[in-house]
Amino acid sequence: xxxxxxxxxxxxxxxxxxxxxxxxxxxxxxxxxxxxxxxxxxxxxxxxxxxxxxxxxxxxxxxxxxxxxxxxxxxxxxxxxxxxxxxxxxxxxxxxxxxxxxxxxxxxxxxxxxxxxxxxxxxxxxxxxxxxxxxxxxxxxxxxxxxxxxxxxxxxxxxxxxxxxxxxxxxxxxxxxxxxxxxxxxxxxxxxxxxxxxxxxxxxxxxxxxxxxxxxxxxxxx
Length: 222
Fold this sequence. Notes:
Helix content: over 70%
Number of strands: 0
């Protein structure tokens, strides 16, 4: 059996359920107790504020990286001594964008691990009393609302940046366009990832808590 102390350990993702040949729950009540503890901890991991803040910080670092790349392009356009400034800005942009990409990959991988373990625990049995808490409506709303705002800002900023590319007196330089598009797309992607995380959990938990369909012969689908 998995102790409550190990499930509540916040230094790591709670483990998946043991394979069938290693399961040693004495009865269904013990299984449901461990299942409820594991799923509560995993839900906290999936919709925790720390995870949301990590996503925002990753987006902020990526935005700074795109600002450096835009500055580099502008410096190269000026030529002369500006080329040296451009090289430094380009190096800074790489230093910021590469770790941001690595952090995003880690964020996505951790989310996939948590989702798979949640599904594995959920498949063991059904427990309406504890499964209702897995929906975590408040946490989902805390993820969804700012994410929708970021999506709206990102769409608007992308449209403005795209319109600024049109030739004319008010058109932007290539460097300004690179910065504007990089920033707006970063904001948009950050919002989309947060919204998808919130909606995905609500859709999955909604199926988990839905009534089990009954067969015509009186049996139930598991």
